[in-house]
Structure formats: structure tokens, C-alpha cells
Amino acid sequence: MQFQQLVYFVAVAETLHFTQAAERVHVSQPSLSQQIRALEKELGAELFSRARGNVALTDAGETLLPLARRILADADTARHEVQELAQLRRGRIRLGATPSVCTGLLPDVLRAFHDLHPGIELLIEESGSHDLVRELARGALDLALVVLPLPTPSPALTTVELLQEDLVVVSSAAAPAPRRPVGIADLEGEPLVMFRHGYDLRDLTVAACRAAGFEPAFTVEGGEMDAVLGFVRAGLGLAVVPRMVAARAGRDLRVTALARPGLRRTIALAHRSDVAPPRAARELQRMLLRTRSPAPDA
């Protein structure tokens, strides 16, 4: 009994028409009929009655049909599982993330993923949440780590909250220590090093200062994460950054907590709702979701 014979048998059983079955499986009708006769000879029983041009299943055909369907389904499952496994040995993942997430959350997760799947190429795009949402929507990214709420909510995206993270104030270790903890109002008149436009951290910090009744004063603005930390080390001012970033910043920076209620941001994993990410991307998604933490008490 050959696998392809079962494919032909099921096609005839479902159409009850040899010509239509041949068209379905893309073979000539004589070839299909020949393979059905060979299968009947192998089994020692007719599978179809062909009286007056009408095709019907015999008792033997009725018995074989569910078994044949199960065999074909199992074969399809096996093929799919092997292909899924192969996708974890080679391929690529296009992951977008905000720069602060790249600095804080991703290094450990990507190292663990690479250790398990060294054949997967990891393509990382750093940008603000607004740009990442646009790249996801046009299919240029498989996954993205973004800050909630999204600048432009999109029903075409699915987001899963990963963690909530406190923001802290960093200053040069060589500068006088600020009082602890620092309130938002205490930043009035203080020289601040500010990120470029498009950074979620910039919008969050400026909005908090304005809510406290003042406009922040910038000594330097327009930098990326590494540049901002470098300017702070040089004593050019303070900066408000995520705690994960501050933890990796080194001993030449002083980290001071913000007074309650402080500032907090929500990191979420996003992907398109209408297209399932590739197998390798789903595996990275699973690893990222393991970093989820319950929301801290307000």
C-alpha cells in the first residue's frame, strides 16, 4: 500500500467521480484509476462500485475511508512538526524594540535564545513605539516591544503586557548627590539631559513636569540612550531613565528613586493580529512572556 494511493482513494471517495478526483490531485484520470485498481488488488477487495457510471463506496471502501483520512492527517502533522523544528534551526526573527528596552530587557533574553537556537538570525530595529507600530502594521517586523499606551491604538495589533517598570533619576557620581527620593517638583530648575523627539521617555518626563506646573530646562537634548547616559556621566545634568537601564549603567552614575507616586511605564509585546508570527518568532515570544511580572501596587 502506497501513501499516494491513499491520497487518490480519499479524493475519489469525497468526489465520487474519478475525473474530478484526478483534477483535485493533479494527475491524469487513467493514472488515478490505475493506482486505485492496484490498491484494490493489494487489499483484495473492491473499494468502489462502478455500476452504470455511478461511483459509490463499497463496504470495504467505507471501512478504509476513516483509516485513510487518519493516516493522511498524521502524515500532514508529521510534516508540519518537522518543518516547525527546521525553522528553529535556521531562519531569522525581525524584532523591534525601544532603545531603552534594547539596553535593559533584551540582552539576557536574546543571549538565552541564541544559546538554544544558534542558527536563528536576530535582526533588531531600535526605534520609538510610534515607528515600531507602523513597521509592524506593514509587515516589516515579526514582533515588537513597545511602551503602552500606544501612540496610535491599532485594532490590527495584539499586545500583551510584559512588565511595569519604575523610572529613576540618574546623575554623575562626581556631582553632589540629590536628596532622596527626588520628587518631580524637585526637577524644576535642574539641568536635564533629554532624549530626542520620538522617545517615549521624553514624552513621559515632559508630561510629568508640566503636570507639576513647570517646563523642564534642558542643557542637552536630542540624544539616544547611550548618548544621554554619557552626557550625564560628564556632569551635564540629570536624566530620567528606566530602572533596568540604570542598573546596567555602571558605578560612575548615581541612581536615585523618584518619590511616590513616581513615574512608571508599561512594556508590552506586540504582533499583528491577522498574521501568526513565524515559528522561531513564536519561540522568542514564549521566552519573552516568561519575563512577565505582576503589576506593582500603585
What report would you give on this structure?
The protein starts with a helix and ends in a 9-residue tail after the last helix. The strands form three sheets. Strands 3, 4, 5, 6, 9, 10 and 11 form a seven-stranded mixed β-sheet that branches. It is built from eleven helices and eleven strands. The protein is rod-shaped, with a radius of gyration of 31 Å.
Blueprint (SSEs and pairs):
Elements: H1 3-15, H2 18-25, H3 29-43, E1 48-49, E2 56-57, H4 59-87, E3 91-97, H5 99-104, H6 106-116, E4 120-126, H7 129-137, E5 143-148, E6 157-172, E7 191-195, H8 200-211, E8 217-223, H9 225-233, E9 239-242, H10 243-247, E10 253-257, E11 264-272, H11 279-289
Parallel strand pairs: 3-4, 3-5, 7-8
Antiparallel strand pairs: 1-2, 5-11, 6-9, 6-10, 6-11
Helix pairs in contact: 1-2, 1-3, 1-4, 2-3
Helix/strand-derived class? Answer: alpha/beta
Question: Largest beta sheet, briefly?
Answer: 7 strands, mixed
Can you count the beta strands? 11
Specify the overall morphology. rod-shaped
Strand content: 15-25%
Q: Between the first and last Cα atoms, what is the distance in angstroms?
A: 67 Å
Would you summarize the structure shown here?
The protein has helices at residues 3-15, 18-25, 29-43, 59-87, 99-104, 106-116, 129-137, 200-211, 225-233, 243-247, 279-289; strands at residues 48-49, 56-57, 91-97, 120-126, 143-148, 157-172, 191-195, 217-223, 239-242, 253-257, 264-272. The chain is an alpha/beta fold and 298 residues long. Strands 3, 4, 5, 6, 9, 10 and 11 form a 7-stranded mixed β-sheet that branches. A two-stranded antiparallel ribbon has the order 1-2.
